[in-house]
Amino acid sequence: MTTTANRGARGDERRAGWFFVTPIVLILGLFMLLPILMALWTSLTDWNGQGSPFAGDVPFVGLDNYTQLFATDDLARLDFMTSLRNNAYYVLFVVPIQTALALGLALVVNNRLLRGKGFFRTAFYFPSVTSSVAISVVFLFMFANGGAINAVLSAFGVSGPQWFSDSRGVLHLLLGRIGVVDPTAPPSVLTEHGILGLSWWDWASGPSVAMCAIIALVVWTTSGTFMLMFLAALQNVPVQLDEAGMIDGASRWQRFIYITLPQLRPTTFLVMTLGLIGTWQVFDQIYVMSQGNPAKTTLTPAFLSYRTAFRDFDYGSGAAISFVLFLIIVLLTLLQRRVMRERNEPGGRGAGPARRRV
Amino acid sequence: MAVSTATRTAPAPPAGPTRRAGEGSGRVLASRFAGYTILVFFSLVFLYPFVIQIANSFKTEADAAAHPLSPVPEPFTAESMTRIFEGTAFPTWLGNSVLVTVVVTLSRVLLDSMAGYALSRLRFRGRGPLFAAVIALMAVPPVVLLIPKFLVLNQLGIYNSYAALIVPLMADAAGVFIMKQFFDSVPAGVEEAARIDGAGPFRTYWSVVLPMARPALITLTILSFQGSWNEFPHTLVAVQNPGLFTLPRGLADLVSGSLGAGTQYPLKLGAALLATIPVAIIFVAFQRYFVRDANEGADKG
């Protein structure tokens, strides 16, 4: 509310305010907001990278690029569905493993009886701050045919696979191992029927052996960050609660399940949703380690959209794929925000069941 | 884990007669031993890959292939290091990385703190919506911006230039958010005193509030340094000319380009090692600021 008396000072502030934010408005506007709008337009065209996507002669195709991804029975849909399947399995493995590992490490590091926690905390967190490309190079070497991983495995009498050229799905392998189905001759009921261009058998492949190496890398790099979040939350758990449990004679396991874990629920939820949002964006590791190979089993939507645009020069489809990916991530973010808000409201009981569904 | 969400209260205590007497030194020792065993095992898991990386950077190719796990190069050779500097474009990548990182970090610290200050302390029309927009942009996943950013750089006519590498990274929404949160915590009295002394908004920002923001500025500097030094996907769509490659881009090129031919792992691992060293030094020196950032992430939610 401006009064006549301080109009001068306020006017000063107003001008200064805009002057201070102009640079970020320009940069974020030009390189985040504007791009989204331009890409939205491009996803409705068949622009091939020549000239400007806004020139009059660029064919406007409406929603064709989107329907092609979901409805047309062709290679574009096959690749897109394969990438969704791959990423879904990747998420399914990475998120629970990294959450459990981060929580486990945090619990051990938080132990009052142990010394040298600073060192261990640093050691576990260090991989998270290094370059994803540099680390991918190291893991390529470790998972090489005669590499460190296979050397360790052979010490236990296991002969390791050729990680980056093995496209077999681990669920297929597992089913074969327990003798349910023969992976080399799967039942025709599964192979002849399917949905969205992939057979049921293909949908049920599980992550490929090659993808497992990437899963291992990502769990290894991200657990440290999430461990720190759990650690911060653990330090906020009142000691009295644990002591009360101890006086009541609860065992260590019971105190963990009934006292600590409920207190950590908001953090667990945060870690899982951040994990969900992050895992749908996996790109650097795929680019460096596998480029979607072998047999497209490490193809993910993010890499597919890059490949479609910059290698096949089909910018329209590439942009459409990235918008579908955008939509998936926005939905996950909204879910996170909504559930976190409910949780923060007094008596927000809806949060419990919602978490289970995640 | 099948934790019953309904059970909020502690369970009925199991009758444990004279339990605590049993928790003597034996149990404490055992649990300490178990704790250290787990910690040491996982430290190996998290650090040994770096040992492998360092050791193999100084091995011959044959030795690296035969003994990938061994931490001792036999024979020790710095040949791959020489080849990195003389046989690859590593010096160019390094130069570009240094340039990009320095310019990006300096401008992020300046621009983000200016915007954070304005959003926190200056009253001007549109402040609310602007802050909401900054929050919204923080949620935009970088990978879906790859094609869009290329479109804009192309349209602006700066594709394949230093400007394309640097300008889009010069400000970031998360940095603005961190600075705004910090300035919110500075007591208002400080600025009022400055204002009564006749200082305008610029002077108040530059000579009064900014010096107080040192912890936040250090955090932002470190995050910007680490982020721009490691940045990969942006360089992939911003430039094409090998003379403009930064370290991550050059490294990716080195790995995917020569996969079919000789494996040259000592060379690749050495280059990756050299690219990691600056961040490792910063990390060891300023650990607590990294930790603070991760925990800010926890508070944010």
Keywords:
heterodimer, A: 358 residues, mainly alpha, MetI-like fold, two-stranded antiparallel sheet, 2 strands, globular, B: 301 residues, 2 domains, 15 helices, disordered N terminus, disordered C terminus, transmembrane (chain B), MetI-like (chain B), sugar transport (chain B)
Question: Describe it for me?
Answer:
The complex is a heterodimer of chains A (358) and B (301). Chain A is mainly alpha-helical. Chain A has 17 helices and 2 strands. Chain A folds into 2 domains: 7-66, no CATH class; 80-169 and 206-342, MetI-like fold (Orthogonal Bundle), CATH 1.10.3720.10. The two termini of chain B are 23 Å apart. The longest helix of chain B has 36 residues, at 265-300. Chain B has helices at 19-22, 25-57, 61-66, 79-87, 90-121, 127-138, 146-156, 162-166, 173-184, 188-196, 201-212, 214-230, 233-238, 247-257, 265-300. Chains A and B meet through helix 1, helix 3, helix 4, helix 5 and helix 6 of A and helix 2, helix 3, helix 5, helix 6 and helix 7 of B.
SSE order and pairing:
The complex is a heterodimer of chains A (358) and B (301).
Chain A: H1 7-42, H2 64-70, H3 75-109, H4 117-129, H5 132-142, H6 148-155, H7 170-177, H8 188-192, E1 194-195, E2 198-199, H9 200-203, H10 209-235, H11 239-247, H12 252-263, H13 265-279, H14 284-289, H15 301-310, H16 315-344, H17 351-357
Antiparallel strand pairs in A: 1-2
Chain B: H1 19-22, H2 25-57, H3 61-66, H4 79-87, H5 90-121, H6 127-138, H7 146-156, H8 162-166, H9 173-184, H10 188-196, H11 201-212, H12 214-230, H13 233-238, H14 247-257, H15 265-300
Helix pairs in contact in B: 2-15, 4-15, 5-9, 5-12, 5-14, 6-9, 9-12, 10-11, 12-15, 14-15
Transmembrane segments (chain B): 33-51, 90-110, 130-150, 162-183, 204-225, 265-286
Membrane topology (chain B): Multi-pass membrane protein
Main location (chain B): membrane
What's the CATH topology label of the largest domain in chain A?
A: MetI-like fold
Output the number of helix runs of chain B: 15
In CATH's first tier, which class of the largest domain in chain A applies? Mainly Alpha
Class by SSE composition of chain A: mainly alpha
CATH class of the largest domain in chain B: Mainly Alpha
Question: Termini separation of chain A (Å)?
Answer: 46 Å
The H-level CATH homologous superfamily of the largest domain in chain B, spelled out, is MetI-like
Strand residue percentage of chain A: under 5%
> How would you sum up the major sheet of chain B?
none
Most extensive chain-chain interface: A-B, 119 and 115 residues
Pfam family, one (chain B): BPD_transp_1
Family (chain B): Belongs to the binding-protein-dependent transport system permease family.
Organism (chain B): Actinoplanes octamycinicus
Subcellular location (chain B): Cell membrane
